[in-house]
Amino acid sequence: MKKNISALTAVSFATALALSACGGGGGGSSGSSGGTSSNNGSSSTPPASTATSANVTTPQYTADSAQLAVFNTINQQRQQCGFPSLVENTQLDQAAQAHASYMGQNGGTITDTEVASNPGFTGATYADRAAHVGFPGSQVYIGGESAGYYTNATLTEAAYGQAIAYAWMGGVYHIAIASWPVTEIGLGWNETTFNGFPEIQASNSIANMQPLAGNLPLTFPCQGTTGVAYKTIGETPTPPNTSGAYGTPVSVVGNAADTIVLTSGTYTDSSGNVINLQLLNSSIDTNNELPAFEAVAYPVAPLNANTTYTVSLTGTRNGTAFSRSFTFTTGNVIG
Question: Which Pfam family would be a valid example here (predicted)?
């Protein structure tokens, strides 16, 4: 993960980020579709299901911990845009923690899959690792995401957690954690040392597809969203038509059985400058990561920090036209 070093605009330390998209499975199949699942190009629909065991009503993550910061940051952003809050599931915590530890034991490489001969192996995919700790993987969709983070400065654990949360939310293939119709999450966190400073390996496992409420499709970001990353680097696979660094994506999401297609998309800044967006639907995603129920629009170059943009999108949901217009404001963070 020691790559893509860039200077943050407000502070004088170097940052390296890495995102990997993404392994999963569910419903008894070999894999479920989506930005947080590996399906070898399949467009199968992840199953809806009832809530599973091991959910806790109050987060059990330690106060001031990185995991609690991730959990709270993601849920705050999801709720504002009409997506259901994620509930902590302690079995998914175990699965995610095992994978974070695996990455740390194997050189800090950010990966979604595990190799049986490597130290710390508990399962090749997110679904396998969930099944390993007893999660009912045959009944629900299971997916996940992994990320790495390094700075040559020591931050608080909460600051590390927020950095990982915004990195996930800023990825074309990782924004799913903020926008997919799932209800359960587990978080794993591991820290090693590089050049005398903490190097983070983080993982999440998400599960349990449920129908969305409201005027579908929903979007993330949405009207009034603030603080999102203005620039994302180091995502694997690299989104189409980018050099590896790009601006804030917008995820457009329906229910699991829906098909979302975007037909036009622009951002306009306060000076009236119009940015044409790259449109990505499951049918044209050359990386075969997006499911049919999600489309993503993104600028192929980074945006400006602390800037408000007006979004204009048109598309279809199951063949019926829709349009969305709203404003969001970037923060001074890199995803």
Answer: CAP
**Buried b / exposed e across 77-99, counting CB within 10 Å, b at 16+?**
bbebbbbbebbbbebbbbbbbbb
Asked if pLDDT for residue 11 goes beyond 50, the answer is no
The residue among 183, 210, 237 that closes a domain is: 210
Of 180, 181, 320, the residue nearest 263 (C-alpha): 320
pLDDT in tens, 86-119: 999 999 999 999 999 999 999 999 999 999 999 9
Domain boundary at 184, 210, 236, which?
A: 210
Please tell me the distance from the alpha carbon of residue 131 to that of residue 161, in angstroms, as a whole number: 26
Co-location of 63 and 188 in the same domain: yes
Domain that holds residue 58: 50-210
The alpha carbon of residue 29 and the mean position of all alpha carbons in its chain are separated, in whole angstroms, by 22
Indicate the length of the chain as a whole number: 335
Give domain status of residue 10, yes or no: no
In 8-155, the DSSP E strands lie at 14-20, 25-26, 87-88, 141-151
Measured CA to CA in angstroms, residue 141 lies from 74, 82, 172, 221 at distances of: 19, 21, 20, 24
State which amino acid sits at residue 188: G
Mean pLDDT on 136-162:
84
- 177 and 196 in a single domain? The answer is yes
